[in-house]
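Q: Please design a sequence for this.
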């Protein structure tokens, strides 16, 4: 903040541009003054003067934005009848308007045709409330602004009640040090209170030596360089500290990987569809061959040209063959009985067998065929070491080593079993029968003794009380295997009890009841046609019409769960009997109370529905 002074009497304070202090300039240096003239601003710090009118009572009148105003008679622009303020309006009284400074702190002084403003504009109306201001200005609410004198190089300090004080400069290198919340700070030597005495790290602390702290990158691979007030980090951050331990250069499409000591980037490839190949504990690489981005189901891949992997079109029930240029393809399946036959210089094809075997050729170093036609004798070709083997042993291949003999075992009936892909086969501990009969099941008749179970037609496999399995034959229709809590299960048929009929047939058992049976129950709230074999919960006023063509023993049940009445209507030519009462032909039976129920069974000989169960009073007519 700078003090521009008060200027000389008659001078005008003019702005000097952004970043510069305004200055007081005599108006006469921009435009000559005329006594009683009006000063006009012309922009860019220039002023002009409108000379006073010789005629008293003329008023200064605007001529638009492009011209200076001029003095004109009131009648030239119209008489003033009302003066509007920002709020409210006033009317001249006898041509007189009184102008006052109001509560602004300003006053007005009028003489002839001039009215002057004097006084000091208060803070509430945008003024300072002070006549002269020098130094640092301090606001005081609605009271006048006060100024505090400052000295060059002083430090300003705020006090209570907006008071501002200053702290004088001190000895060079002294630092401004806080003295707590109750006192102003003071300049103090670094060794005094407030100096940095310890630097705390994540682990450990460091103490300045003669005011000096050395900052190092430690074992991170980074180094520091200092200049002026700046300390800069340089170098490459090691892997162990979260870096790459390498100065890497980005590559579009590149792959980041790690060497044994640092991060690295495998440069992107300009060839699309190459795949990433691992190294043997070393740098990965892009394949030379390209691979398809998509494949179809069941498709096989092959090299359609050098380093170009393509797909073989899939085919159902085919055989993979290659043509005379080596290109693979699927040969579509042939007809039943055809065999794949080679053709010299052409792909193999399906053909039918037209003759038997004409000659036999052995496999080099494996089988010798001598002679190749006629009575051919096949014999194994070495290596054989020793020249003889244990009698009755089984010869086992050992790769490129000599064939060896396994066994024989002294126990008859043991079988040769695989011991896995990396060991010779061995004979089992368990013995197996040398012959079996058709359909026979094998089981362990004793530890490590496999025997055959006697067969039986149309049987079920069961076990006895000692666990020995046997096949129990089902010799009659309807037989089942029925368990026993203390003995072996046996084949038997079901026994019918009172009211139950059991009918056995081939692969079926029919169980029926001799009693009248009601199956499905439904809710009915309106009239409906009753169906034989059903039951009805009646929940509203309804008429139930009995079936027109019932059969002997047809049963229908009704249960009334409403205070409304149910009417049971016999069909044409039918009767309803409740106890000793019989209805008329096509008669009815009506309940009387909620909770009544009635079960009717049809008797064909007298076309009558007879009540076999009745609850409540039923009016049968």
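A: Design:
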């Amino acid at each position: 903040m700078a003090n521009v002074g008060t200027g000389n009497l008659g001078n005008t304070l003019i702005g000097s541009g952004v970043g510069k202090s305004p200055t007081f300039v005599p108006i006469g240096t921009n435009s000559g003054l005329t006594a009683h003239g009006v000063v006009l601003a012309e922009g860019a710090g220039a002023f002009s003067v409108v000379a006073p009118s010789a005629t008293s009572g003329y008023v200064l009148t605007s001529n638009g934005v492009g011209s200076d105003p001029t003095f004109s008679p009131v009648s030239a622009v119209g008489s003033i009848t009302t003066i509007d303020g920002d709020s409210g309006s006033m009317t001249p009284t006898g041509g007189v308007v009184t102008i006052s400074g109001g509560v602004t702190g300003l006053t007005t002084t009028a003489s002839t045709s001039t009215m002057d403003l004097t006084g000091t504009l208060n803070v509430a109306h945008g003024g300072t409330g002070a006549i002269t201001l020098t130094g640092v200005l301090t606001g005081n609410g609605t009271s006048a602004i006060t100024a505090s004198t400052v000295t060059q190089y002083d430090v300003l300090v705020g006090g209570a009640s907006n008071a501002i004080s200053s702290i004088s400069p001190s000895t060079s290198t002294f630092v401004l040090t806080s003295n707590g919340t109750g006192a102003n700070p003071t300049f103090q030597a670094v060794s005094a209170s407030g100096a940095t005495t310890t630097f705390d790290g994540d682990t450990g602390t460091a103490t300045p030596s003669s005011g000096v702290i050395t900052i190092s990158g430690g074992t991170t691979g980074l180094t520091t360089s200092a200049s002026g007030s700046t300390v800069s980090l340089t170098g490459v951050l090691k892997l162990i500290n979260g870096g790459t331990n390498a100065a890497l250069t980005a590559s579009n499409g590149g792959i980041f990987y790690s060497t044994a000591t640092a991060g690295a980037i495998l440069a992107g490839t300009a060839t699309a569809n190459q795949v990433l190949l691992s190294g043997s504990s070393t740098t990965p690489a892009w394949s030379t061959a390209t691979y398809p981005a998509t494949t179809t189901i069941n498709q096989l891949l092959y090299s359609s040209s050098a380093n170009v992997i393509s797909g073989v079109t899939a085919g159902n029930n085919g055989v993979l063959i290659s043509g005379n240029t080596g290109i693979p393809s699927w040969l579509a399946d042939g007809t039943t009985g055809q065999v794949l036959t080679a053709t010299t210089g052409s792909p193999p094809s399906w053909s039918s067998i037209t003759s038997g075997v004409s000659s036999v050729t052995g496999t080099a170093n494996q089988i010798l065929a001598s002679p190749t036609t006629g009575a051919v004798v096949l014999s194994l070709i070495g290596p054989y070491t020793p020249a003889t083997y244990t009698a009755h042993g089984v010869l086992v291949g050992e790769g490129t080593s000599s064939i060896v003999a396994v066994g024989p075992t002294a126990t008859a009936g043991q079988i040769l079993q695989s011991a896995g892909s990396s060991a010779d086969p061995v004979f089992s501990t368990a013995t197996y029968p040398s012959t079996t009969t058709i359909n026979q099941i094998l089981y362990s008749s004793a530890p490590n003794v496999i025997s055959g179970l006697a067969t039986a037609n149309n049987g079920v496999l069961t076990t006895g009380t000692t666990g020995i399995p046997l096949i129990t034959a089902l010799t009659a229709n309807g037989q089942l295997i029925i368990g026993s809590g203390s003995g072996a299960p046996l084949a038997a048929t079901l026994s019918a009890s009172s009211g139950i009929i059991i009918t056995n047939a081939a692969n079926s058992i029919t169980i029926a009841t001799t009693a009248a049976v009601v199956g499905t129950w439904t809710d009915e709230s309106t009239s409906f046609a009753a169906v034989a074999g059903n039951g009805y919960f009646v929940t509203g006023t309804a008429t139930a019409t009995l079936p027109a063509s019932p059969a002997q023993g047809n049963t229908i049940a009704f249960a009334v769960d409403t205070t409304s009445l149910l009417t049971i209507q016999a069909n044409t030519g039918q009767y309803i009997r409740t106890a000793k009462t019989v209805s008329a032909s096509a008669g009815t039976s009506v309940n009387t109370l909620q909770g009544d129920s009635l079960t009717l069974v049809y008797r064909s000989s007298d076309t009558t529905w007879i009540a076999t169960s009745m609850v409540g009073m039923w009016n049968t007519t």
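Q: Thanks. Anything notable?
A: The helical segments are 74-77. The first helix runs from residue 74 to 77.
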